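User: Before I run my own analysis I want an independent prediction to cross-check against. Here's the chain; please return only the structure tokens and, at the end, one sentence I can use as a sanity check.
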Amino acid sequence: MLIPPVSETDHIRGAADALVTLVEYGDFECPHCGRAHVFVLDALERLGDDVRFVFRHFPLAQAHPHAPYAAEAAEAAGEQGQFWPMHDVLFENQDALESDDLVAYADELELDVKRFVDQLEAGIHQAKVRADFRSGVRSGVNGTPTFFVDGQRFDGSWADGDLVLALASVARGKQREVSTSPAR
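Assistant: Structure tokens:
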């Protein structure tokens, strides 16, 4: 079970009134997360407004030493309204996550680069990244990527279409509930 539930402190992509919520605990340097990113984007495109997507940081620092700083970079971009563009750029460039690379991405996204760098150097986003990580631990996450569909851990394969099928199934079930509910 997802702990805590999705809230306004999360980064959310998609319609607020979506029928189903997909949460990923991910690591920007994890190659599996990089591959899953493509499948998540496909699922969001296929299912449209029926799904909203939440990304929470779960950097596995011992295996992926650049991941914590990349997570902070995404948060710094988020402070300027560019979390999702930075999220996508980081996954598309997993082999280039050094400090200079992150600054270059900030420049490409037309962020206030000085503000971005100042926040990274001050470490002001470390607490958010740690909070996401701790929530993953409380939710039973032990590797990346780990997905939750409407608060329940998804243990199927994201690579063979099971994730899209699970999301579509939950969405259809909720559509049926709405259509068969008695009018007030």
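Sanity check: The chain is about 50% helix and 15% strand.
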